[in-house]
Every structure is written in C-alpha cells, then in structure tokens.
## 1
Amino acid sequence: MNGYVSSAAGPVARLIEEFHKLPGIGPKSAQRLAYHLLRMPAAQARTLAEAIVDVKERIVLCSACQNVTEIQPCRICTDPGRERSLICVVEEPLDILALERTGTYRGLYHVLHGVISPMDGIGPEELKVQELLQRLRSDEVREIILATNPNIEGDATAMYLGRLLRPLGPRVTRLARGLPVGGDVEYADDITLSRALEGRQEVQG
Amino acid sequence: MIRRARLYKTEAIVLRQRKLGEADRIVSLYTPNYGKLDAKAKGVRKTISRMAGHLQPLTRCAVQLAQGRSMEIVAGCQTIEAFPALRQDLERLSCALYAAELVDRMLPERVEALATYQLLLDTLHRLEAGIDMELALRYFEIQLLGQAGFRPELEQCPACGSALLGGPHRFSVTAGGVLCRSCADGDVEARPLSIDALKALRLLQRASWPEIARVLPAMSREIESHLRSYIVYVLEREVNALAFIERLRREGKGLPVEV
C-alpha cells in the first residue's frame, strides 16, 4: 500500500503522507505540494511551518461566543459598538465571516461548531449548546437569530434550539428563506418557492 | 441487475447526503427499479444551484441520472413531493430520518425494490400526516424486516418448528422469532413477550395498513423494544437516529437531560 510514497526519501515520504491527510488533497496533489516545498527557499518554508504551529498554539475558542480567536474574549465580543442583546447562532466560524461581509449585522455571535444530524448520530451534546444557555442566564438577551443552514440538519438544529430557548425569554428567529441572487424561479424547489411567496415584500424604488 | 441506458430517468426518494470536495455532494437515492444507489450531485453546495433544493433528504423527486465510471451523476432533478410538514416538526422529522436510515442500512444496493419503495413512501405519507406515528413506525419496521429477508417468526417456534401453544412466550433475536416453552428454557437471552404484544406483532405482520388503521392495535413500549433489539441484532449496529428520538421523548416528558 501507499505506493506513491514508498519510493520517496524518508522525510519527503512523511511530508507527502501529511499533505494527503488534508481535505481535498489526493495522492498526486500531495506529491506535487511536497516537491514544491522541497524547492522552496528555506525561509519561506519556515514561515509556513511557523504559521501552522502558531495557529494551533495561539488560537483558542472565545470563552463567550466560541469563535476562534487569539485574544480572550474575542474582538467581536469586546467591541463596545456591538449590540449585546442580539445573538446570531451559526454552525461554523466561517459563517461569521460571511455574515460580517454583509456589514449589516451589529449584534454578537455564537458558534455551535457543528449541527444536529440524527442519521450520523450527532446530537446537541456534541455542540456548544450548553455554552449558549450559559450566556442566556448571565446576559440580557432580547433576540436570538438562528442562522443554521437551510437543510435537514439545519432545520433540526433550529427547531431543537427554538424549543430549548423560547421558554427562557428571548425572541427566537430564523434567517428568511427565498430565492438567491442570480437564481431562477423556474428551477426553484417547491419549499423555497412557497417560502419566498410567504415572505414577499412591497416593491421599493 | 437491470441494464440501464447511459442517461436514464427514475423516481427516487433521497435518503441522505454527504459532502464531496468543494461544492459537490453524494446523494443516496432509493429508487423503485434500481433500489438504493449513490449518485454524485455536482455544485449543489453553491447557493444558486438549480438542483440543491430538489435533492434534500426526504424529498421524492424525478431524477435524470447519467452513468458515470464509478458512480451515477445527477443530470437533472425535479421535486415530486417535498413533505413540508415533516420538515417543520421535530418529532415527525426524526421519525422520518429513522425510517430512511433503516432503509439505507438494511437493504442492499442496486436490487430492484418496488415493494420497499412503496413501503417507505407510504410511511413518509403517514408521518407527514402526523397521526398514529408510533403505529406507522412499528408497521414499517416489521414489514421492512420481512422484505429484507429477516421476517420475525411469530407463528411457530423458529428453533424446533412446533406450533406456539400457550405462554409464557419469549422472543429470541438470535433465533429470529418467538420460542416455544421448551426451547425458551435453553435460550438465556430470549426476553419475555406478553400475549398482547405477540398478538399485535402478528397483526402488524399479516394485515394490510387499511386493516390496521381500522383496528388500531395498542402500541406498547414492549413491542417497540423487541423490534428494536431485533433490528440492532440484524444490522449488527445501533441505528443513529434512535438516540435523537429518545432524547426528544425524554425532554418532552420534562425529564432532566444532559446537553
């Protein structure tokens, strides 16, 4: 087995194997990356190595919102310009980047680090749900916006959290569903289209 | 296996999805004529995908498949039924996911499955309606076991073949049915089965759904627990969706739950 590494020299073989473990990297790409590194100036390779070590040693989860951060609590949680009574719940840290790009949301976040998936045996105990409940107990929260993905797992997670959070007081909302920009009414699925009809709005301008 | 054209159309129920690469997914489809098959759906993780919404798990759709080298590729897809009520109720959703998971785990790939397809579709309709869900699930379980070749033997002792006369009865997962009194003594793992539960199981196995819906036999935890341990024995593994169903039950009763 592992015929693609066996003929390479020891350290090179190890590097190929490590690259091969990364998502989306097949055996050929792993070889190419390893030999590219081999030809790279030593300083540049060292910078890469340090960046990898740094990210593992200096990045922690924010004690409040569970986002990845190097300062504790994270920049968003300590920003005085943010509305503290608004929490947007997302599946992954990358979702925060997407929401921040819009520039329209000024509240705080909470990262679940996953999503309830009954068929894969992933339940709420594997997500940062307890941490979210803790925040509700200690802070004055007016509204929770559930920004889980609009699919089966995201639906299950949103419904489960809705049940859990509603009795605690805050308004619990979910991101609207509708047609995406650049989309096509003709190809829209039934559920999206009926939600888009329900959420139709007065034409502006 | 039925020979398929390079590009062919079929009806399908989407059982589950998993991510593939940057923007693709592999969807597990359950089809009447080709049974269970995996297909690659390209680009469905992009927001403007024309197929993503039609390929969500628990959607009944008409798909156009292209034969790929290792796996079919979804060339087109149109929803037939989306079961919207299933998606807006946590109990219905978890029960439907459980049904889909059982079909996914118990049936072989690419074997014609008209009866099982119809059974799954009927069960989804029953769960979508949201009435008699426990009954619908028990009926689904015992019928699915039968269709998959694991029909529990409820009429005569699976060990010695003698007719089951008088109780007490014991259900043995290893023997695959209800043991007679003398055989039950030798099987330490067989669990007691009440006469009411045995009668209800027999009815579920023999009767059609309209008859069962008319009689409405009482479903007990005992029946559920026997079927469940038999299913786990047959699959040689736990059914993932059950843990979530159990959690919803406990929380619904207001019992303390460790999150």
Note: Chain B touches chain A through 38 residues (CB under 8 Å).
## 2
Amino acid sequence: MKHQLKCAVWEFTLRCNLRCLHCGSSAGLPREKELTTNECFKLCEELAELGCEDVSLMGGEPFLRKDWFSVASCIRDLGMNLAFVSNGTILDRYIEKISQLEPKVVGISLDGMKNTHELIRGKGTFEKTVKAIDLLRERNIQTTVITTVSKLNFRDLPKMKEFLFKKEVNWQLQVAMPFGNFKREQMLSKEEFYATALFIAKERIKNRFEDLPVIGAHCYGYYSEILPGCEWDGCQAGISSIGITSDGGIVGCLSMGNDRFIEGNVRDKSLREIWEDPNSFEYNRKFDETKLGPNCRNCKYGLKCRGGCNSMSYTLTGRFHNDPYCFYAIEKEKGLVKEGVLSKIFPFL
Amino acid sequence: MEKEIHDLGKVLGVEEEDIKSMKKERFKRYIFYLTVIIFSTITGFFMGMLSPTSINYDSYPFSTASVGSVSLKSKKDNIPFTIITMILAVISFVATYKFSQTLFGVAIMYNVYRRK
C-alpha cells in the first residue's frame, strides 16, 4: 500500500532559551550536527516532491536559528503550508517577518496562569508569551495556544479558559508524557486525564466556536460512550506524517523520543527512499489486530484507534498499540459504561 | 451514573448539567446519523433504479445505500430523474464526509446515463 505524506513536523533546532520542566526533547543545547541551511533547502525540496502539504517548524525554539526565515520562505515558495510552534519569548523581534510569510498557524505554548507558567517555563516568561499571542492576533495570524497538561498546571485550566476567552485563539490541550525532562510522578492520573476530557467536552458545548475553540490533541482520546464527538483513526506516524530531527533523522513522530525509531537520515538517503522503504514505520504500516497490546486486545474500538497514541503507549508500557490513557478504557474501569442499543448500532459515535 | 461522572469532572468545574448536555449532544448525533442513513438508503434505491450495473458501497454505515445498488430496471433518457438522484447522492454522502464515494457514485451514474 502506498502512503501519502501530508504533514512533516520538523525539530528545526534543539537549541532553546528555556528549560521547561516537561520538555520531552530536553531541549537546550543544539544537537551536535544540525542540518546546514543548504541541507534544509534540499530537505524542503524533497518534502515538496513527496507531495507534503504542511510543514511545522518547531524546536527547541525555531526562531533561534539564524536561517529560519530563509528556510521558512523556501517552504512557502515550494507551495507548502507553514506552521511554527514557539515558546513566544523572542517572537516579538520577528513578528513582521512572520507576518510576511503568512503561516497557516502559529502555535504558542502557554502552560498556565503566571505563577504556574513560570514555575514550568522560568521567570519572566509569562508576559513575553502573552505579548507574542497579542502580536500575532493584532496581525490576524491564526494562533493556537498549546497547553501541555500535567499535575503542575491541571487546576489552572478553568482560569486559563477565562483568560483566553474571546482572544480569538484556538486552544489545544495535550498531555505531558513522561520522557525527556518530565517526571512520571507529575503526569496526570487517569482520573485527572478524564476530568480534563470532561472539561474540554463541556467547553466545546458551552462556548460558541468563535469565542474559544477548545481542541483536545490526539492524545486526548479516543472513543467514548459518554463524551460526544470522540473518534480517531489511529496514529498517523509514518502513515501520513513524519517527524524530522534537527540532525536529519526521520521518525514517525517526534514524540517517540527514542533513537531506535529513527528510520534513516536524510544525509545518508533521500527522504523518498526512507518514506518508500517497505520496512519503514512498520509498527504502523504493518499494523493488524495481533499487534494490539493487552490493554486494547479485546476492545471493540481496537481496530479503529489502533491502540491509541503510540508515543504514550510506548512510554508507559514499553510497547505500541497499548495506550492505557484511553477514555473508553477508563469508562469501563470506573463502571461508567452502560451500553445501550444505540451505541451498539453506532459504535463510532 | 451521572453523579459518578460528575465526581470525576467537578475538580475542573464540570457540573451535572454539563454531563446532561453531553448526553443531549450525543443523542443529536445519533439522530443526525440515522437521518443520513435513511436518506442514503432512499438515494441508493433511486441509484439502483437508474443503473443497470451494480454500485457497491460497502463502507459502514453507508452500506445501507447498497440496498439500492441492485439494478431494478433501466430508466432511459430520464434526465430530471438522473439529475435529482445525483443531487441526492451528493448531499447524502457529502453530509457524511465520504466525498470520494460520492464522486465514485456520480461517475458511475454519469457513465450509465451516457451509455444509454
């Protein structure tokens, strides 16, 4: 089966001006041999050639690379959509250039109200990040506030909602996973995870979409008998998306913080060769029901969600397709599921 | 049950009322899908009447549309009937985000009509 690459998430540099408590990449210093500008241009061409539609530049902090504008321009010139994910602290210096590039979206990390955000990201960061959000909105650039939820900031969510309401931003919540700098004991419990899901569902129903679209990232899932609108086609790592490390490594997803899953390096092979290699990304491309782990094996949704987020699954259980942070599994565990006739007829709802 | 769910969510200000709204929201979705499936079935039936070939929609929940895929009889030169059926097919399948299937169906019908 031929797979079509749609989206590339590119760790443009591992260099970062912050040392966040939950950073999965343990960003700070750049990798030893990060791609040169010319190598980046070549990679952009290869992405375009493969028909990739969206490229997200993230880090570390992408704006710390001196050549970010020329590489981002190259992405745009090749007809691909551009997105940035930034901590927002130095974005004000480049706002005119960013605006010129007309990115599809800029993601800004905001992890709580002032005290919590600065506990996670360091002193003096809150105002800078909020200023970045305001600057982006002043220029009418589509902005998504990204909150990585853990025990550290979980209780700030209602206040954050008040703060972001009518700021004309999207708000994406994602779960902090225990790798990189992040300690496992700070991870949400299953109950807290589910409470966050209820919070997202509530806000989606209560608010007008224009006022504050609240989005649960893919790790907030998957199928549910209680929460409305939960469905997921499974992990897209190596199916329609890739992650690119700043030294040219190709992985299915950048959250798979393990060198074992690097399928190849664009310095050694072309991106097409890596992408079209029948042995690449086999955990996803060769998925079948026998690959489901014990948490998902007998689940009626197993073949649809394919065992949830592979990154979460691997980090917590040491294997793919076995994600224990699953709405349906929690509902069953807590005895909340009462399967009616309708849910049997429409198991996807 | 609502109480148990509320107990989980109250830490983030989720009220019992909100849980009820979620239930309502899910119910609205059921009704929507039911409507679409009934609509698809009727459309599929018309398509079958038009087409002397078999049109196979096997993707759940649209399989109901294949009810109409068995050829009943050929309707020659009935342009208004063809157009109305095609529009119904487009609305029906686009409503459920299965655009490729829609085009597939439309293409078959176009060819069937052209052959006559």
Note: Residues 16-50 of chain B form the longest helix (35 residues).
## 3
Amino acid sequence: MGQFSILMARTFKKPEKMKIFYRQLMFEIDSLGIGSLGIIAIISFFMGAVITIQTASNIDSALIPAYTVGFTVRQSMILEFAPTIIALILAGKVGSNIASEIGTMRVSEQIDALEIMGINSASYLILPKITAAMLINPFLVIISMFIGMAGGYLVSWGTGMIPTSEYIYGLEYDFKVFSVYYAVIKTIFFAFIITAVPSYYGYFTKGGSLAVGAASTKAVVASSIIILIINYILTQLLLV
Amino acid sequence: MIKIENVSKAFNGEQILSDINVTYEKGKTNLIIGASGSGKSVLTKCTVGLIKPDSGKVFFDDREFTSLNTQERQEVRTEIGMLFQGNALFDSLTIEQNVMFPLQMHSSMNAEEMKERVDFCLKRVQLEGVNHKYPAEISGGMQKRVALARAIAMKPKYLFCDEPNSGLDPQTSIVIDQLISEITKENDMTTIIVTHDMNSVMEIGEKVIFIHKGKKWWEGDSETILTTDNQELSDFVFASSVMKRLARSSK
C-alpha cells in the first residue's frame, strides 16, 4: 500500500510537457476507450437480451404487469450491469494490457531509459492512462446502458414474449436520473482501479517475460476484487 | 568528471559493492571491466541513481548527485546519455521519434530544429534512411546505433554505455567502439563503458578499472593491463587464447 501511494504521488505530478501529455492522453483514449467499444457493445447487447428473456419467462403471476420486464432491464443495466460488469470486463482486457505493457517496459529497461533522460516515468506512462479511463469510461458505460436496453427491445420484438409498447413503458416507468449519476460515480472510481492497479503491478515487475505474465495475472485478479469491494462500499454509501 | 567516493551496496545481505573509489576523467573513455556478477553494472546504476547506494557519494563535476532531491537529479540527468545493454528503444516509436524523444521532452527547439538534430545524430552513427522504421524492423547492430544516437541527441556531458557490444558480431562491435570513442573526443564528454570485451579494452580503453568481487581491484590503461602482475586481473584478461598470444607477442 505504501509503495502504491508513493507511485501515485509520483504519477499525479504536473506533466513535464503538456503538449506531450495531451498527445499521450488522446492515444490512450483511443486505445483504452474506443478500442474497447466493440466488446462492450457485444456484451451489453446480450446482457440486455438475456435479462429480458429471464425476467419475462419468470413472471408467472398475472398480478405482475408486463412492463416489469422493461423496468427490470433498465434498472439492472443502469445500476449494476453497465458500470460493474463492464468494469470487470475492462479490468481483464485493459488491465492485462496495461500491466504487460508497463511490465515489458520495466524488464527491457525502457523505464530506466526514461528516468535517465530526466523524465518522471510514472507520470509520463501512468497519468495519461488513468486520466483517459476516468474521462472516457463514463461514456462507455452510458453507451452500454443504451445498447443493453436496445438488446432487450429487439428480443421483445423478435420473440413476442412481451409487447414492445409494454417494454418501452417499463423502460420509462419511475425513472430517476440519480441512478445514472450513481452509475457514473461508480464508473469513475472503477476507471481509476482498472488503470492504477495494473500500472502498479507492471511498474514494479522484476525479472523477465514470466514475471510480466505473472504481473498481468495478479493485476487482473487484484483489480477485479478491489472493484467488487468498492462496488459494495459505494452502493452502501450512495443508495442506502 | 565523475567522482565516486566510498560507494557500497548490498542486496539481501549479500555485499555487491564494497567501498568503491573511482574518478572517471573528462574527454576519456573510462572502461569498467570484470566478470559477470562482479558488480560493474550495479556500480554504473548507483552512479546514475537508478540504484541507491547504501553508503558513499557520487559527484558529477562539483555536484554531489547522491544528496540532490528528485527535481535536481532530473536536471542533472538531462546532461546524461545512456546506452543500455538491451538498447531500451521505445517499441511503439519510430527510429526518428526515438531519437527525437529527449529533445521533445527537454529542449526548446522547434520541430524543424529537432528534425535537423535527429538527422545529424543518425548520420553521425552512420544510419540514414531508417527514420520511419520501427526498432523491430532493423538489425541489432542498427538498434545499438539508434540507441547511441538517442543518447547523444541532447549533447550530454556524461555518456554511460552498459555492455555496448553484447550480442553483436566482432565487426559491428568495432564500429560501435570507434563511434563511442570518436563521439567522446568530439564532444569532450566523460564516457563510462561497462564491458567484459577485451577487444574493446585494447581498442578504446584510455582508463580501465577492474572490478572483482565488488571491489576495485585494479586501475590502469590498455597498455599496462597486458603486463599486470595482478593475478585476478591476469586470469580475467588472459582467459582467451587470443589475448595470451597477444601478450606473448607484445613481450
């Protein structure tokens, strides 16, 4: 924890050249954010579709209105699936990528080369990644919410399990904007974990290619567990 | 000039460097030689601050590097060029971007001036027409020359080379040695080369320091090394039959 704090203190120093930082930031937004759009779209679509089928097929009682399906899909996607499941997916995809990239730079002395050039390697390498994820991930999660709900709509329309008008009504029913704020707040915390934890494991890699692989695995496991713990704490703080 | 005073370093209770005192002279190629595991790379990393020594001081001219804060160290480091054993080129950048990198980070040059400097450095290490290639697309010898071009891009006062010939064929090794030697003279730099290549010692060793079991065992030059009566150094120098023949012919 102490070593992590020291690394973060070095990371959050003012970048040496803002122009270079901006260039790195744009690259990371493209790499970490836009590059993850495809997998997020696929996962979100099927999450929405599956929640729709499961909810519709489990409603036996005539007392429960059909629009409950749309309502359930919306609430599940906004409150939990989009922010948390997408964060866990990104912890695997982006986290392993960051840990192995920085770990390889460590074992091939590229980080030493940066230090010798008088560059704060932590700030140069890690700050753009953390900033990019914290900026772009909320948009990814909002896109995920929409795609998930669209997935549910297509299933409703395709299977006829519930009328699409009922599904739409359920999506709109008792909507509270705070749910989206809650999801975005969680996403910003998760974005930090997804990038900072793997950066830490990569930065302190010792050894060769085996150590890089081990760092990548540890980073994914650690960031996934931390996401789940923080998810619980934030839910307790924000919703209860 | 770089002066090292009483530097010691241990890892996990094992003494790697013991009370090292060395002065690297300006305008000369200072070679650190020794067997693998003798502590020569650790000594270099202690000198440039990549490893913190347990005790002792390092002076870059009149500045005591070991007592500087992070900001002051970074300023001194802008005067240091380093050629790493594995080159440490940035995979995601082209050759031109690699050499331009320290200029972009520290100089106030405009794009045109930086391009001119990059072209000059690449030409100086006899590399032209590779500006837009990536490190993975060129040979090991060429990568070494790119790393040297990057190391000299900022016109450093101090040049460190960690085993510059490792993994290179004998002909390319000679080219790299000659380049380092010429660049040292041209820019009046303090150059420190870590090596266990006796060809380099004989070719460019103006000052030679022999490290053995973490201690400075011997200090001299490429001429006196052949007539040394120091047993450990003699064992190291004359390990190869070529060196034995050279010694016999010189006698």
Note: Residues 85 and 164 of chain B are 6 Å apart (CA to CA).
## 4
Amino acid sequence: MLSSRIEDLPWVDAFSLPSLFDTRASLYKEWHDFVFFDRGSQLFGLLNFAVHGNPYDGKRGYGAALAFLSGPGGKVHTALKLSPLHQLKVSPYDPDFLTKEVSVSYQATEFTIKGKIDDVSLDLTIPVLLPPVTMTQIGFDVLSKSRINVEMVGAAGEMAGIWDKWVELPKLSVVGTIGTPGTSYTVDTTTGYQDHEGGRFDWGGVLGWDTGVLLCDPTSPGEPEKVSFLFYRYGPSGESSYGGVIVRTAEGKERFFGAENMTITRTGEFSGERAYLPGVTKLLYPDYRPHVPATTVFSGTESGDSIEVTFTPRAVCTIVVPSTTGEAETTFNETHCDAALKAVVGGESYDKVIPCWFESVRPRGRFDDGP
Amino acid sequence: MALRLRKFLDELLDVMREDSPRELRRLIHDASGLTYLQTLDGEKAVIIVKNRQIAIAGRANKKDVNVRVHITRDCLFDILEGRLTLVEALDGGGLKVFGDPLTLLRCYAIWERVISLARKSPRFYFLTYELR
C-alpha cells in the first residue's frame, strides 16, 4: 500500500515496540517530533517524546520528553524530563505517549498534548490535516521520479540498516497554550508537522543527516503547500550524502530536486542564541560549540524547474547523545531558521521568507560542520 | 522526601557494580588513596578508596581527609542541568572545594567519567533526582 489515510494514523504512527525476545531490544529507540511555528506569537516549537532502551527492562529503559522553544527575537527555552518505564505508557496500537507529568494522546483524528516538561507547561490540541506519509511511500515516490544511482543506493542502504520506522505527518493544526516561567504563548497555526522515527541501533554507528521542513502556510500569498528536505550521509566515514528537496505547490504539483542536481554551500558562523541538552553537556564540554553556518544555501534545477533556499538560523539547540556501547557521541543541531525560498515549480513562482525547522545530525567531533 | 547522601552514594555504587563493573574498577584504581569528604546541604559522607576497595562512611579522621567538597542541592542541580558552570558555582559560593590542586584534578577527572557514564544510564539519572 503506497498511500495512507488519516484513519490509518493510529497504527501508522504507533510505537513499533520490539519483541520481548529481540536480542537488540536494549538498542531500541523511537520518538515523535512535533514541530510548529506560530506567526502571531512568533513562537517556534519542537517537542520530542521518546522511548529509549529495552521497553521491558524497568531498570534500563526510559521515556524522555524534550521541549525546544524559540520565541520572538530568538529567545530560547529548553526542557528535558525523563520518566521511568513504570510511569510511561506506549503501545503498538496507537501513538499515545502517556507519563505522569505529560501526555500525548490521539483520538478522533487529533492529538492532545497536556502537562509539563519540567518548567514548560503544554495544553495543545493538534488536529491532523493531511494523511501520514511513510518511509516506503517516500522511497517509491523518489524511485518513480528519479533514476537509481550509486548515491541513492548508498544512502538507502545506510537508512535501512538503522531505521525500522520513519513516518511523517505533513500538516497539523496546533492550537492552545504553552507556558514557560514568566511567559505564556497562545498558539494557533496550521504549520504543524510531525515525524516519527524508530529503530534498534547504537548512536555510535550513525553517520547522520540534514533534514527539515519549511513551515508553510499555503493560504498566505506566495507560499507553496510543502517544502521538505532530507540529505542522508553514508559511506565509510559519512563523507557522502544523498537526498533532495521536495516542493509541492498549493495546486498539488510536485517536484523532487535530487542531490545530483543540487549544490549546497555553507558560509560563516551562527552567532545567535544556543542551548545545550542535556544540561551536563556544558559541564562535560564547557567549550563545546559545534559549527553552525550563518547561512546554508540549497540550489538546483530539475526539468525546467528551479529552487534556491537560503537558511539563516535564528536559534540553535544542540543535543549530544552518547553511544550506549562505546565512547562515540552524536550531535543533533536542532535549528529554528528563516528560509528564503526562491523557486519556480510547475509554472508557479515563489520568493518569500518562510519559518523553518532544520535538523543536522553528525558524529560529535567528526565533520562537525553542520548544518 | 529527598534521598540521604550516604544512601545515594551506596546505591550509586550498587548500580555501578551491577551495570558498569569495568568502569568502577578503573575508578577505584584512579582514586586509590583518596579520602573524600562530601557535604550536601550540611549532610556529610566520606568516600574512602584504598586497597582496591571503595567504601562510604559517615565520618573519617580529619587528618586522613585529602579532599573536601561542599555543595548545596540547588547548586548541584543547577550544574547538572546546565544553568551554572563550575566556575560560576565556585564564584557564587554554592560549591566549595578544598584540597591540593593535583588531588582536586584527579577528583575532577573521576567525576567527569561518572557523569559521562550517568548520561547512558537512566538508573543514575533517576537515582540522582531522588536527592532533590
């Protein structure tokens, strides 16, 4: 089946818990990432709800909820809270993530997120506006529009070795309130997005990726329905990458700009506000400041269409994740960007700055030059 | 009710014996000869490392103690959650350390490894938060 319906969401977006007898169950990890930008309050939010470790080992498995908020002027607030397994409910039958302090629940085509992640309070209703898209669908879509090449096979092999699940919910409404100490934000936007990934792997073996979405509002003049991108690193030391950018117009015309027809340039050094998670990262590495370019530009052409996106970070949250089996560490640079989109797709022209989520993942200390 | 410091350290050692025996052996090797007085909000515990053994005690002879660390709970969690650097904690008085510089550097290297290990272990994390 190559397409899903909103009605399929409960099982498509559910947690794919490993078997009790899975010999790699201790390497299991799976999460929801909710991302949005509210243009009224100028609030960018990334909320992550994750299960780590063997979900049947009450001592070593755990749940984690994380919030990265970037308010007006790039003011950053982050929070991270772990939950023991006996206080966490997830299942392979629905996308719910229920802990004592914060809950994500899904019913009648909408999520609700209620409770607290440390000092961040959440009361959100998140109706799902478009059906989920699975890794299989994206793969077939790319294959149907592009010729298979070595780069594509390399990246696909790397992804298949890591991920058991990769699902996106391309369009969500996000309505409600978010509170941080001293500040309360009202959110009402249709720019919400969710991705859901999971697998049984160790972070020490991950070469990383650059991914993200422009948080488009197609009802706003001059904006497409969707722009998303993924460049996946592969090869002996992750020096190569393959992927592309997908643009869908408000009229439903779609164009995939493959990496073979794109150039990526990175310049300067981001000088705005940064946050680090978990907090002990600053204790362990007081001087750690991963390179984040001041601008990153994707540009390319395909069958008469063209695209140029210039990403300018406004706030960065660096998350350092250790390998559980060795000394390696992986750095996630979660970035709230302005994305200046200049594109021509299917006869439609775009020239607009759109809020964006950009996630760049790399082994810490190697190729530490992203996003 | 918050976990008592001595009980915390005893349980921390139990977790390490169970989950990280190799790291514990290395820690004991590197800390050999240390008698470390830890104070948390006035509550005292002594970590004694000698003869390839590590033990937690309530007190020790003053002349045997070669490192003293005083910290408040607020300061501890501000450091662990990234709100304070070690330098800021020392400057603010929430953290006080006494001992000869080389011994303090040894202790720092040991705690750095324990904290690094703690990031991989939810058992460490949940145990530490019982101190709050």
Note: The helical segments of chain A are 9-12, 135-145, 150-162, 280-284.
